[in-house]
Design goal:
Blueprint (H helix, E strand, L loop, with lengths): L1 H13 L5 H20 L10 H12 L4 H20 L26 H8 L7 H16 L3 H5 L6 E2 L4 E5 L5 E5 L2 H18 L18 H15 L7 H14 L4 H8 L4 H4 L1 H17 L4
Helix pairs in contact: 1-2, 2-4, 6-8, 6-10, 10-13
């Protein structure tokens, strides 16, 4: 079973071109699945039927959110399709299992006032404060994922024409414009701070105190400290800035297709969630300010 998982992960890398984060997600899900099969003493793929899979999913439902179950169903469906495609088995138990419907939850966003408060909080008289200001400005101005920010290299910057390149999910490349304010803070960081911090052979734009690549966890930890200092009571993650970027663009009249391109969404239906947010906020404003609401 483990050798089949290793082969599948290689397939995802070589033939599907999935990014490392995506492959690790599949690895975690399927390792948990194989452990469950081992606990049932199932060592032959032909022993796996829909009832075995349903028992596994039922076990997960006791301690996991609906989104986790949906993701696991997707992982199992693709894994079993691969096994049948490669003729390791003649059956596919996932053919008889429906994926649970995902309840639509609107992503949390910050208001423009809260974004201003957040961005103005880092102490830019210090090296790390100036770096953190540059990071937040770039994240809000581009809507980049935190994984894209930490993997941003110097060669991806084209600041003379206010553009940067990033590699998103599925190793898809996209070009994103950079606003004048974010450009100002990024240039300040590159001129005043990065030369003092970065080791000579480190290609990454944002580095930690030791001069190495800044991690996703490092950005998350720094953001939590900034949010606390700013006195913002909402739960704020790096992805909150991405959600806020998209929502504020749409609220100010941006075309949905343009926002899709900027975010790097493969399917516009993913981007359409932000139209629901703007409608919800419009309703809130109406209820608050219309005298006969």
């Amino acid at each position: 079973m483990q050798s089949l998982l290793d082969e599948y992960l290689s397939y995802l890398q070589i033939e599907r071109g999935l990014a490392e984060n995506s492959r690790q997600s599949y690895r975690r899900d399927l390792t948990q699945y194989l452990k469950f099969l081992a606990s049932r003493q199932i060592t032959d793929l032909d022993q796996v039927d829909r009832f075995v899979v349903m028992d596994f999913l039922e076990m997960l439902q006791k301690d996991h959110a609906q989104a986790t179950i949906i993701r696991m169903c997707s992982s199992l469906r693709r894994f079993h399709q691969f096994l049948r495609q490669e003729r390791y088995t003649e059956t596919d138990p996932m053919q008889h299992i429906d994926t649970p419907k995902k309840g639509q939850t609107l992503p949390k966003i910050l208001s423009t006032q809260e974004v201003d408060l957040l961005l103005n909080t880092p102490d830019t008289t210090t090296k790390l404060g100036l770096r953190n200001r540059a990071i937040l400005e770039v994240m809000y101005a581009t809507g980049m994922r935190v994984s894209e920010v930490v993997n941003l290299t110097m060669s991806m910057l084209h600041l003379n024409i206010s553009l940067l390149k990033t590699i998103g999910k599925g190793d898809k490349e996209r070009i994103i414009p950079l606003g004048s304010v974010a450009l100002l803070w990024l240039n300040r960081y590159l001129d005043e701070v990065r030369p003092q911090l970065a080791k000579d052979d480190v290609p990454f734009v944002f580095v930690n105190f030791h001069g190495n690549q800044l991690s996703r966890q490092g950005i998350w930890k720094n953001l939590q400290q900034i949010v606390q200092t700013a006195g913002i009571t909402k739960s704020v993650t790096p992805h909150t800035l991405r959600h806020s970027f998209a929502t504020h663009l749409l609220e100010n009249g941006a075309d949905l297709r343009i926002v899709q391109e900027l975010l790097g969404h493969a399917d516009i239906s993913t981007t359409q969630i932000y139209t629901h947010i703007t409608k919800a906020r419009m309703a809130d404003v109406y209820q608050k300010y219309f005298p006969r609401a």
